[in-house]
Write a structure and sequence with these properties.
With about 375 residues, the protein is α/β, with parallel strands linked by helices. It is built from 13 helices and eight strands. The chain has an eight-stranded parallel beta barrel, surrounded by six helices. β3, α3 and β4 form a beta-alpha-beta unit. α1 runs parallel beside α2, α5 packs parallel to α6 and α11 crosses α13. It starts with about 20 loop residues before the first strand and ends with a helix. It binds phosphoenolpyruvate and manganese (II) ion.
Length: about 375
């Protein structure tokens, strides 16, 4: 059962957030007062950042690593706010973190990926926020379970937090990949289509894990009509105590923000709409044909299933499947399609075919 979320759009949270995309930036961790103020002042000068982030309590995998400066960092953040007028945001994971952030006037809270995964922690934090009007941004859980993500949004919404956003920071990879966390773009898209007002922000820094991929991921997020970006910036990334490889300098942030192309999701140019409409009609018609063909294929699969059942033949004949997959990949490549795409498509079709024949044989 899905709850409807009652959401206040991000441009209504603060007057500073009235333009899209919202840019959140700042170091992975607050380390010293100087580091924080230098980073914040340099970021402010760019003129395109509205929210300053800093981790005060760091959720580290192992206790030998730097776990954050704690409460004193909140005093530094207050200074940042006074000097730059930037809004501030901090990661919270416990009711005590929330109390301290409220005490020191942090503007926006965010929930880290590890915490979103734990409904007990989320419930405890909602208790600390009863009757409080503060925006909360919720990172996706470590594992790609969209319901866990939605569940956290629902829990905060239920106790009255309406200024909610989701942050897509990617998912733990089970294989060696060039990215630190695998983006699953279908999830932020699904969130947006389920909850129209819900702002969705992308965190390209934690998806990338390395600064060289940040631009590409940021542009993709904007092209998918995400509402904002959270990018880690450090005055001296090489010396950073956490996430050193993925943090960029303020001047690199400026370059990046200046080169991002901001495209519109609501074109009002008549010629554009007219010509894209023609293409869309073609796509609609091709999709109809694709689905009709798939349905025809499945009918034949079912007939074969009946035949195999009568003759006591196994569903899978490995040599036949290998022939299918190899020939389709070859043909697909000839048509200009990627090997990976055809392979995955045929695997999906094959899985469904096996399922159909399995139903026939065993029911
Ligand atoms: C962070 O933003 O520094 C952080 C710890 O991120 P995540 O929760 O996405 O791992
Ligand atoms: Mn980080």
């Amino acid at each position: 059962m899905e709850m409807l979320l009652n959401i206040i759009p991000i441009n209504k949270w603060f007057k500073q957030l009235n333009s899209k995309p919202v840019i959140i930036s700042g170091p992975c961790s607050a380390e010293t007062e100087q580091q924080l103020l230098d980073t914040a002042n340099a970021i402010k000068k760019i003129g395109k950042v509205q929210i300053f982030r800093a981790g005060i309590w760091k959720p580290r995998t192992r206790p030998v690593d730097f776990e954050g400066v704690g409460e004193k960092g909140l005093i530094w953040l207050k200074k940042v706010k006074e000097q730059t007028n930037l809004l501030t945001t901090v990661e919270v994971a416990t009711p005590e973190h929330i109390e301290k952030c409220l005490k020191f006037g942090v503007d926006i809270l965010w929930i880290g990926a590890r915490t979103t995964s734990n409904p007990f922690s989320i419930n405890e934090m909602t208790q600390a926020l009863k009757g409080v009007d503060i925006p909360v941004m919720i990172k996706n859980p470590i594992n790609p379970d969209i319901n866990l993500w939605i569940g956290a949004l629902e829990r905060f919404n239920k106790i009255g937090i309406k200024k909610l956003a989701a942050i897509h920071r990617g998912f733990f990879p089970f294989e060696l990949t060039s990215l630190r966390n695998i983006p699953k773009w279908e999830m932020p898209i699904e969130l947006k289509s389920k909850f129209h007002n819900l702002p969705v922000i992308c965190d390209p820094s934690h998806i990338a894990g390395n600064k060289k991929y940040i631009y590409e991921i940021s542009q993709k997020a904007l092209d998918l009509d995400m509402d904002g970006l959270m990018i880690e910036t450090h005055i001296n990334p090489a010396k950073a105590l956490t996430d050193s490889k993925q943090q960029i300098k303020p001047e690199e942030l400026k370059l990046l923000l200046d080169s991002l192309v901001i495209r519109t999701a609501n074109p009002n140019n008549f010629n554009f709409i007219n010509s894209i409409e023609k293409y869309r009609e073609q796509i609609d018609s091709i999709d109809t044909q694709l689905i009709e063909l798939l349905a025809q294929r499945m009918k034949i699969v079912e007939q074969i299933g009946v035949y195999k059942k009568n003759k006591d033949v196994t569903i899978l004949q490995l040599s036949r499947w290998e022939k299918i997959i190899n020939s389709r990949i070859k043909f697909g490549i000839k048509q200009g399609l990627s090997k990976n795409f055809i392979k995955r498509l045929m695997q999906l079709v094959h899985k469904e075919s096996i399922q159909k024949q399995n139903d026939i044989m065993n029911n």
